[in-house]
Design a protein that fits this description.
Length: about 130
């Protein structure tokens, strides 16, 4: 990555990190009776270590939780599917039954209804700007 930068160049990034879609994980547990397989997301500390290990120094690094509104729980799940997000985890995870998916959607709507209508989902985002160390 360092080789791709112009002299004096910097990288600026935003990356989803652990804690993203915590609401979905809670409702999955309630509907399925087991923990949701994790999204394959890094912790903020791992993001920092990876860039530092690649020879970068941070000008700025911060994390924020962004809340995005959706029409309903089904819209949240469609949005996740559209971007190609996949669940990690070890070994095969049994799929949810149609009844469990319906229960998950109902639980989500009941617990995370937004005051202005619809539901919200939270995304943990790491924002950073870094430059190559000399």
């Amino acid at each position: 990555m360092r080789e791709s930068l112009a002299p004096g160049g910097r990288i600026v990034f935003a990356a989803l990190i652990e804690g993203t879609l915590a609401e979905l994980a809670e409702c999955y547990r309630a509907a399925a009776g087991r923990s949701m397989p994790a999204l394959a997301l890094w912790s903020a500390a791992r993001c920092q270590r990876a860039l530092e290990g690649a020879g970068f120094a941070f000008e700025r690094f911060e994390c924020e939780t962004l809340r995005i509104g959706y029409a309903d729980a089904w819209d949240v799940m469609r949005s996740i599917k559209r971007i190609g997000a996949t669940l990690g985890g070890r070994g095969p995870t049994p799929a949810l039954s149609p009844r469990q998916i319906e229960a998950l959607a109902m639980e989500y709507t009941n617990r995370f209804r937004a005051a202005e209508g619809g539901v919200s989902a939270s995304y943990r985002v790491a924002f950073g700007a870094a430059f190559p160390r000399a």
